[in-house]
Every structure is written in structure tokens, then in C-alpha cells.
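ok so i was messing around last nite and threw this chain in just to see what happens. nothing serious, just curious
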Amino acid sequence: MIRRTVAALLWLLAGWTTGGLAAYVLGLPAITAPALGLAAGLFVGWDPMHLLWAVRPDRTRIRRRIADLERVPADASNPALRAQAEAATD
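result:
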């Protein structure tokens, strides 16, 4: 959350500076500078399309994706243990 706030403040300042330059060069009203800065800062801070700040996944989703040790057989990856287990059951 701190990164988002700092980024929004930096974009506010960058937009204000760019708006001030545009107002000076193009002869626009002086209110253009803070309006452009505020719009840029709000857009970066809000991020409506989640392009800049990813949505944090729920912890329950993460837990569902991680396999429990009880569900994973111990000999699934070792062919020697698998052969021993098959020989013991025969």
C-alpha cells in the first residue's frame, strides 16, 4: 500500500509539472496544471483495470492449490520405492 501511495504522489507531481508546462506553452488556464496532476495521481492510485497493482489472492485459494502431504503418496517420485511397494503387495 505504501508503494501505491508514493507512486500516486509522484504521478501527481509529474502531472502537475506537465500540466504547468502545457498551460504555459499552449496558453491554457492555470487550473490545467493541478487538474492534470490530480487526474494522473488518482488514476495511478485507483488503478481501475488492475494493470499496475495486482489483486492479492485469497489465502484460501492458495491453500487449495498447495497439495497436502497426506494426499501425495511418498513413493510417487521414486521408482525404487514404487517397485518395493508393488513387490510387498504381491
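not much to say yet. Residues 81 and 87 are 10 Å apart (CA to CA).
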